[in-house]
Amino acid sequence: MTACFCPVFVERKVKTEGRRCAEEVKIMTFSAKYLNSVIHPLGIYFKKITGMKGWKIGMKYEFKGNRGNFYMENPDLTSYLYFPLANESGVMSCVSPDLGGDSKMDQNSFLMPPVSCENLHNDKSSRNVWCRIDGSTLWSLTGRSSWQQAQKFSENKEPMAVEAGFMHHKITRTSDQIGIKGEISSLVPATGESVELMKIQIENTSSQYKSFQIITAIPLYARSADNIRDHRHVTSLLHRIKTKSSGVIVTPTMTFDERGHKPNFRAYGVFGGSESQGPVGYFPVLEDFIGEGGSLENPKALQERQLKPEKENFKTGGYEALGGLCFQECRVGPKEKITYVVAMGYGNTEDELIQNCSQFLSERAFDRCWEQTAEYWNHKVNVRLKTGNPAFDLWMRWVSFQPMLRRIYGCSFLPHHDYGKGGRGWRDLWQDCLALLMMNPAGVRQMLIDNFGGVRMDGTNATIIGNRQGEFVADRNNITRVWMDHGVWPFLTTELYIHQTGDLKILLEKNSYFKDMQVCRGEDKDIQWKTEDGERLRDGRGRIYSGTVLEHLLVQNLTSFYDVGEYNHIRIRGADWNDALDMAAQRGESVAFTCMYGYNLKGLAVFLEELKAQGVAEFEMAEEVRLLLAEDPAVYDDIRRKQEILKDYCRTCSHHVSGKRAVVKAVDLQADLLSKASWIYHHIRQTEWIDSKEGYGWYNGYYDNSGNRVEGETKAGVRMMLTSQVFSLMSGVAEDPQVKDIVKAADALLYRKDIGGYRLNTDFHEVKMDLGRMFGFAYGHKENGAVFSHMATMFGNALYRRNASGEGYHALLSLFEHCSNSEKSRIYPGIPEYVDAGGRGMYHYLTGAASWYLVTVVTQMFGVRGHYGNLIFKPQLIKEQFDEHCQAWVSMEFAGKSLKVLYKNPRNLDPDAYRITSVTVNGIPCHCPGEEWIIKREELLKLPDQELHTIMVELN
């Protein structure tokens, strides 16, 4: 038998001068036979190899199959790991490797105690499952007993593993010492029931008969997250606790949170059973279970020789509740298993709660739900690809899944996302649509139209977004906050939509405008507005005013053109994309987003040209909008005059609009937009380019609240921000020769391979109180110098747009290589919001980076994208991305058809060397006139539905 040799990564923790530092000592190679002889079965903490404590062999996850499912040994030795379990009906759960985490329906309906990231290892609450063995030995299937925790860092550590796929998760734990193996499988049904399910399976791995008795210990919090420290005890007095057949139910008498004292109608519960039995008793009160001096990791109730659970129909109130289900003691033979299913659920009535949960209390029902849930989400994540890197292909499945998670969780409700109270932000509405256009474009049209209902007539937008599509809510606290970048994103998403679908007429669809007390771009209040007036803008006759999508886009971008500071760039106001640039409201300016407003104005002009070709020669718009159009271009250099124009416009529509409509010719509107865009491009190119002493250059992107340029070579050091380069490149402000200079500067000043690529900024060595709170963060964390995935991904996108394929690939590959190396990033598959100074991925799952990464891979890297609804191919795959057969493919939905675009690169060339020589559709040659290879949409529509169609593209 040939010896198998395995690389083993050894890490040593040392202390130096009061600081912890990690030193990678070396990589050792051992034969599999040797490893098996000296190493604990799952390979953690080996005195025999190292001769000392404090060393470990790092573990990585590995993918199983072709769906993205993964397996990881001993994830409990990685801190801050958590996994999302949710459905589209409102259940939002998360589980850690030891089944910590929480479950909730919204901010005010937490079934388990709310957790933040530090609670994952500090709290003793979990979905714990205890097994009493032979009436005395206590063993936790989740490892959450005090004695198992004490052994965690010794050679006696119990091996455990996690296997997971989209919305389903299983942990396995083994004790050779006791002779027992436990599995807990968890999911939230994709079929929509308001429950989280666990299947508990325990196997006797010894050669002797044993008696097993299972007891669950799941804390039932049953109230608002606000009460975690605001009246925590008082709100427990509202609890009414009862036991019913198969479960424990908690129904608080009222809610006691920021909404006031109101009757409660939500019931919470934990139920369990199997085909043949339910619980024989219950531990419904937390303090009775843990006992005096006990804890959830060492409960006194389970130390009794004879357990004393409560019986069915027990009632009490005024205590913290526990989903403590006690099952019958069973005698289990060698290699035999026992199985139970537990349902943790919600209901608007107790009967509804019982119905939601009871239908799943059998192994057969659970297994059917497991398969349905796995299949449902696998089908939803319908973008697939194959390159020369299988790990990248499967990792991309998780990146594609992440926008779906953000539609469910918003930007809250996972352990790192402990800010806000649910819902998504303005940018999220538009950026999540980018991913939908790749995976499920059918419903995007109405979604976009509805989203425009959040735009105010002054060009700003609602910042509180309701639960229903197109629902926007006035800020009752009257907190004025204007993000100056918000006008950029709707056009970018609408632009992609128009090109993917050919639906240019969406620009002529109408919607209302959002209305609340905030007017004049946050500088004034409309004291005439009352809540009862509603949250839609009205005209002088009190009628709700509606304008076209085009008008909404014009309002957003034209107001931004005039909203300038002393350097004639758009003012920062509350913040821009970087929320932490929030201390420059008076004199701060954003050159970076001025670039993008120029891009948008130019893009709108291009769409007007296409509309003219389709016979649309003039447009109706609110008479007030004309104030932003008919100006002599000489005004553009006059800062004071621009500010006056904006004020005059905002005053005319601060309470209502007149309702009068003006007719504007397409040719005049197009000329005006192009003139403004051209001025922006010229102004930035002339004033903001920085030449470095090192021979490269970049664009300054900001001015601070002291009126000083932010970026450049200063006495404090070189200052550069990635955002400034992304948008100068993406907009086209950066001229072709400047692209290489910007890349050189970014590589020299921002790039760090060991933490995933391009950092957001250099170290300013200053707590910059005249720019933003980010400079109060330690450098290398979050917005201050971390590798911020969103902007690093957009940097890659911008480079691809400028045909810098190698450089764009480098930006995306750096993120992938770091994030997918779980020994370094310490996360499950996917892309986090950022990578901190130590290399840890932070704020996993809920990030706009995922949408941008997916869109960049499909439309730029593979170059499969629409152009006014037609399908074009402009691949920028480099030669190492093709497999051993010199092929690479992506499958996706386009024009309502399932397409697989297969590239063949037989000569193994790079993008600057290959060109498309032929295209076939299902083996039939496609004849494309001209130099560009385009398949007309009408040809695609002729293809049969419900089939996967292969488009083969030859590169030579």
UniProtKB/TrEMBL annotation:
<dbReference type="GO" id="GO:0016757">
    <property type="term" value="F:glycosyltransferase activity"/>
</dbReference>
<dbReference type="InterPro" id="IPR033432">
    <property type="entry name" value="GH94_catalytic"/>
</dbReference>
<dbReference type="GO" id="GO:0005975">
    <property type="term" value="P:carbohydrate metabolic process"/>
</dbReference>
<dbReference type="GO" id="GO:0030246">
    <property type="term" value="F:carbohydrate binding"/>
</dbReference>
<dbReference type="InterPro" id="IPR010383">
    <property type="entry name" value="Glyco_hydrolase_94_b-supersand"/>
</dbReference>
<dbReference type="InterPro" id="IPR012341">
    <property type="entry name" value="6hp_glycosidase-like_sf"/>
</dbReference>
<dbReference type="InterPro" id="IPR037018">
    <property type="entry name" value="GH65_N"/>
</dbReference>
<feature type="domain" description="Glycosyl hydrolase 94 supersandwich">
    <location>
        <begin position="134"/>
        <end position="358"/>
    </location>
</feature>
<feature type="domain" description="Glycosyl hydrolase 94 catalytic">
    <location>
        <begin position="676"/>
        <end position="863"/>
    </location>
</feature>
<protein>
    <submittedName>
        <fullName>Cellobiose phosphorylase-like protein</fullName>
    </submittedName>
</protein>
<dbReference type="Pfam" id="PF06165">
    <property type="entry name" value="GH94_b-supersand"/>
</dbReference>
<dbReference type="InterPro" id="IPR011013">
    <property type="entry name" value="Gal_mutarotase_sf_dom"/>
</dbReference>
<keyword id="KW-0328">Glycosyltransferase</keyword>
<dbReference type="Pfam" id="PF17167">
    <property type="entry name" value="Glyco_hydro_94"/>
</dbReference>
<dbReference type="InterPro" id="IPR052047">
    <property type="entry name" value="GH94_Enzymes"/>
</dbReference>
<keyword id="KW-0808">Transferase</keyword>
<dbReference type="InterPro" id="IPR008928">
    <property type="entry name" value="6-hairpin_glycosidase_sf"/>
</dbReference>
